[in-house]
Amino acid sequence: MKWTHLAGRAIALVAVVALSLSGDTQKHQYSPRDLAYYADAATVNFVRPGLVFKVTSAQIASDGTIAATISVTDPQGLALDRLGVTTPGAVSISLIAATIPKSQEQYTAYTTRSQKSPITGNTAIQAGADSGGTFTPNSDGTYTYTFKTKAPSGWDATATHTIGVYGSRDLTQFGMNINYASTTFNFVPNGAAVTVTRDVVRSMACNNCHDQISFHGGSRRGVELCILCHQPQTVDPDTGNTLDAKVFIHKIHLGSSLPSVKAGTPYQIIGFNQAVSDWSTVVFPADARRCETCHDQKSGAAQANAYLTKPTRAACGACHDDVDFAKGTGHAGGPQFDDNLCANCHIPQGEYDFDASIKGAHVIPAESSLLTGIAVNITNIQNGSAGKNPTVTFTLLDGSGAALPLSKLTGGTLSLSMTGPTTDYGLTSFGSDVTTPGYVTESALTVASCGPDGTCTYTFKHAIPANAVGTYTMGMEARRQEVVLGGTTSQQTISYSSKNPVMYFSVDGSPVAPRRTVVATASCNKCHVSFTTIHGSLRNQTEYCVICHNPSGTDSPVRGQAQVAADKALPPQGINFNLLVHRIHTGDNLPPDRPYVVVGFGGSHNDFSDVRYPAMSPQGEPGDRRNCAMCHVNGSEQNLPEGKNAVMDPQGPINPTIQPISSACTGCHVTLSTASHTLANTTTLGESCTVCHGSGAAFAVGQVHAQY
Q: In DSSP terms, which residues pair with 682 in a beta bridge?
């Protein structure tokens, strides 16, 4: 029934109940990511957006009939009418019933469907939701759902059973979005306590990258629900690939690095309506050897260490898919016909890095415990006034805190970079011989003066400009090489770097004013964990990145060395930090005729057009960049960079420079129509973006990026 056809009495009753429970307004209960945050308070109090499912009880009768009692409420606990008659928004609800059989660790679903492939003709039984069951409303506002599917003959009343619930609430007719929710409920039918669970990876680990892990239209949310269907029972009949989570998830995340993909076989799953999902281009944003990115040992998952203690051919072979365990091909231990002996060789941790233990085999070289370490820290800047050559005091130490002689940096680097002012970088010249725009970098590798305690000094050859004012920035980078396990078959040379220290200093006696903080390294590392692949890990802190990736920066110094002829023929590419990061994360959402290609060291071709940003949309699709707070800190996404330096963007539609707000926004919004819009709203007086998009304006950044 449409709300326009409801009796006035029903509407009034709901409004009175809602307002009496809410007080003056419920808007404060919503975040800036919610449309309700920006909606009229009266509408929000009436509609009360959101959806919460909770299973309060479940049972299985002796004949196998499965029933579950479910509360369906808004976030404040007000019961919702699933039909949308007496409360706003119809609610769709689907349920799954599954069990963990005795002596097993994964689920088997009772609720299944038969799926026949039009490609292969094969038929597979797949776990899924029940179909044809009945809802019975209860006097307390809950519902009892009786499954059409019955537990099979011989079902075990002493085993753990789980009810999964997922669904949506459609509020689009009220100017809101569709709300999604899911939940699970564990029980033992004979009334005993639940002691057996499947709890290996928690959703919080997934959400570091995925923001809100959700799939299949958005209603399936959370790992706890996913594993009810994504277990060994479920297979894709079109490709023959298993949809078991321990295989499926490993393969998706390894993506382009899978041995099978490198050998030319794409990794694909064919899903609903024969839609092809090709995961062959996925690049895991962290190092794939860092298993703890997903298997978070601090998540509270009961079996978080299962990957260490219970290795299996299926889980390990998902990433190492060039290993044939049956034949022994690619496996040093020869053929393995079951998982019984895996843990004998692959113990959790061995005696040294890079051995056959699970932790040892997954050691990231730059983080090896065999390394003696390197750490630099800026402690003082003297002669840091306009017109003078600053002398920087810093410490050069190893991992134990002992002095690290310069002679130990053979094959490494030790450099300092100076820029300013912190109001915005990119326009300061440090001399006609300096080709890097807005900053100067000098090597201290052979000329720094170091004492026996690791305290070193270096005096810049280039002076601070005589007309300099305000606060300037000094940053530093250091890298060394070490040989580990020398003389053994595991000998290797490892190159690794120090964290980049940054110090701010006043050049005119005014108070020190650090550069604005827009993003933080900690935000980046929620997904990347550690910048171990950026410039060989040499540059690894956002405060340091922006020194080089400033508004005047392009790849012009190396574009002439481009290895791809087409790159050499094009103008330079802008690499200002917000342009660079926005474009890279936009990735495969870039128009085909607007790729983002940066020519790098040695003329390398770096095309970011296939990057698949992992954050999920409310509808369960990757690539949603609307949650700016995943990267931005302190609400900085709301503060448009008004009055900052113009940005070099020679390949952009507005070139060779574009104004700062326009550049930041068109980093993601790359259509020509958007560029035209920004250009039309820019005059000789500057940009007028804040009139409509500033904080509190009709189309403020937060409001136009609201997702829920």
A: 687
Handedness of CA 458, 464, 469, 475 (dihedral sign): negative
Predicted TM-score (pTM) of this structure: 0.91
State the Cα–Cα distance between residues 77 and 87, nearest whole angstrom. Answer: 13
Structure tokens at 393: 């005091």
- What is the DSSP code string of 283-297? --SS-TT-GGGTS-T
- CA dist 478 and 374 (Å) reads 8
Q: Residue 615: how many CA atoms within 13 Å on its side-chain side? A: 19
Tokens describing residue 313: 């051919």
605-607 and 597-599 strand pairing: antiparallel
Listed residue (110, 86, 87, 88) closest to 99, CA to CA: 110
Q: Sign of dihedral through CA atoms 562, 563, 568, 574?
A: negative
Q: Any idea how long the chain is?
A: 708
Cα–Cα distance for residue pair 74/53, rounded to 1 Å? 9
| Residue 59: pLDDT over 80 | yes
| Dihedral sign from CA coordinates of 35, 41, 45, 46 | negative
Grade residue 28 by pLDDT with cuts at 50, 70 and 90. low
One-letter-per-residue 3-state SS of 191-225: CCCCCCCCCCCCHHHHHHHHCCCEEHHHCEECHHH
pLDDT number for residue 11? 38
Beta bridge partners of 180: 168
Angstrom distances, CA of residue 211 to CA of 43, 414, 610, 618: 28, 37, 20, 10
DSSP H or E stretch at residue 382: strand 375-382
Convert the pLDDT of each residue in 100-125 to its tens digit.
999 999 999 999 999 999 999 999 99
